[in-house]
Specification:
The protein is an alpha+beta fold. It has three domains: 109 residues, Butyryl-Coa Dehydrogenase, subunit A, domain 1 (Orthogonal Bundle), CATH 1.10.540.10; 109 residues, Butyryl-CoA Dehydrogenase, subunit A, domain 2, CATH 2.40.110.10; 145 residues, Up-down Bundle (Butyryl-CoA Dehydrogenase, subunit A, domain 3). 48% of the residues lie in helices and 16% in strands. The strands form three sheets. Strands 1-4-5-8 form a four-stranded mixed sheet. A four-stranded antiparallel sheet has the order 2-3-7-6, with no helix packed on it. The protein has a two-stranded antiparallel ribbon with strand order 9-10. The two termini are 35 Å apart.
Length: 379
Amino acid sequence: MEELPEEVRVMRDTIRRFVEEELDPIADRVEEEDRIPDHIVERMRELGLFGMVIPEEYGGLGLSMLGLTSVMEELSRASLCFRMMITTNNGIGSLGLLLVGTEEQKKLHLPLMASGERIGCFCLTEPEAGSDAASVRTTAARDGDSYVLNGEKIWITNADIADYFTVMATVDRSLGSKGLTAFWVERDTPGLRVGRLEPKMGLHGTQVAEVFFDDCRVPASAVLGREGEGFKLAMRVLDHGRLSIAASSVGAAERLLEAMVEHATTREQFGRPIADNQAIQWMVADSATEIAAARLLVRDAARRKDRDERITVECSMAKLYATEMASRVADRAVQVFGGMGYIRGNIAERYFRDLRVYRLYEGTSEIQRLVIARRFLQR
């Protein structure tokens, strides 16, 4: 496999030490308390993790996509919630502004996001618009020099702590995807209300919540890009997010493989380590091979992105394969651990639950297959 550039290796190694020394030891505590301790959030700020993709001119680290995916891989070797804490600032919560925001908007908000002083989130999903993003029902009615937003968003990651909301709303439902427009809305805007936190199967430590817009008035300057171009922007943002999830899947699967090997070589049954059994060996071999293949997909897409190539299909391929692969590895890990793999507190049990959502959000596996197939079936 091609070597990583020196600057990427340095950042990766720094994060690996952070994970091993500070994050992994508290993973069980975070799972039980359903929150990340304040001192860990502060350490993330010190390391610049909230602004990894934000350019240096706005106070960020300006990491390449290859650098970001390498960091996401490492962070996912502990509880996946640690990645979730910073992912919106390094992806869907900041990219809209970064890609099409005005210079004034960028100078005002990006430095605050890079430092972790402000958190962003991305409001797309609705009760009637999940995979079919063009069916968004939240409306944005033009009223003089402002827009009035009305609607409901669901399952919004980090909404409970977010200061900035990238909101997808339609200016005209009859236009379908061409009516979708992106808005930058601040938390204290009258009419914006964060609803209840949703109890989740996994990813304890970070939250998802409903977000309501009730006659929420924002200035026309809150539009990101141009009216009617929100759908295109959302798809560009999701490409980035899908690759980040794929990288996270690789890191999680590798951590599970290590746990499987450690257990298999020390656990004895019938007078010998269970690793001597061919059934266990095959699970280890299949997992190691699939992890290597997924990493190649991720790094190929990341390098293409860093060359400014269009990578929609490559991101879908990476997310589809890596997330499905990680779930298979988690299932094998539970099997290798046996009964203890089904008990709360076991690493296999936690990852088994946490990884399941990776095949759902930012485009289900089925949506990724559609994206890929359409490229090859174009006539």
